[in-house]
Amino acid sequence: MSIESRSPQPTVLLTGFPGFLGSALVERLIDHGDGPIACLIQPAYRGRAEKRAQEITSDRDAIQLYEGDITRPELGLSDVLPELTAVSELYHLAAVYDLAVDPDIARAVNIRGTEHVLSVAAQLGVDRFHYVSTCYVSGRYDGVFTESHLKEGQQFNNYYEWSKYEAEVRVQEKMDDGFPATIYRPSIVVGDSKTGVTGKYDGPYYLIRLLLRQPRWCSVITKLPKSTAAELNVVPQDFVIDAIDALRSSADTCGNVYQLCDPHPLSVPEFVSTIATETGHRVIPAPTSKRTAKLVMSVLKRLQLPAEPATIDYLDHPTRYANPKTRPVLEDAGVMCPPFASYADRLLSFVIEQPTIQQEAIKTKP
């Protein structure tokens, strides 16, 4: 690997660029004058990464791109690690965000990849390690899941949840040994609350797009027996970035877990009703079993319609998320999660105006 000589040396290392959250976080760090920032990128995404870096700043030294891969020991950076000795903060966002991910890929990227990033962080002797996990390390925990929960004997909806759980276990084990880390657990991340912009249509976007493909006068949506009590906890991208930004800069937040969730989420029927109201669709709930709903989604997916069978598990998800330790800290910083209804119109406008967008799936082999 040929890497040109760089000056000055980076003080921040980040994985997950030019992904949706990673790009926004890099932009925020640059705005604060942090860096230079070394961004680990996969070779396949160099063109996109260069374009995104130029959009963020005209200073070519501010964002420095290093080709590598978190699935490889030393992130594939063994030849250039001496250039990163000045790194004092490491942000780990790279992961496979796919509810239908293959277990081998989930293990290679989300679990072993996190182990490799932790190893590099220790090798560099960073002062702070920032890890973006997910609320869904909860699996199908039956009850209220807070920052204090992790190992609860839970079952998981899919290999994505399982692999993120296993990855966070490894980070927390290091924290227990004194490793200087902070963990951020967003719930389901959707687009920017002000612009509606997103980088990928997944999660609740399947529901939104499937509804939009149907006639306004009659749009059929699956209703599971337990969906009335289930919550769909979504947070906008800008809230997640604001929260990480507020939490990262304080020494008091080191060694803690922060859950970035909506304290007042909508139930599944309320979420559907909000979408229906904003789009003018008359929704007809179709009571059915989970097994039948997944079969229908499989057929629709084969027909190239916006459907993913794995999303059905979230229509009767038994877990409710709370953040009693996180909310006071964020409120003191003036950061609050906006209610979904306050920005749903912007999300929908973006989907309508941009029916297809380039996906950000990580290309890798286990």
TrEMBL record:
GO molecular function annotations of the record? alcohol-forming very long-chain fatty acyl-CoA reductase activity
The record, for SUPFAM superfamilies, names: NAD(P)-binding Rossmann-fold domains
Q: Which residues form the Thioester reductase (TE) domain?
A: 14-244
Please cite one Gene Ontology biological process associated with this protein: long-chain fatty-acyl-CoA metabolic process
Highest taxon of the lineage: Archaea
What is the recorded name of this protein? SDR family oxidoreductase
- Give the source species: Natronocalculus amylovorans
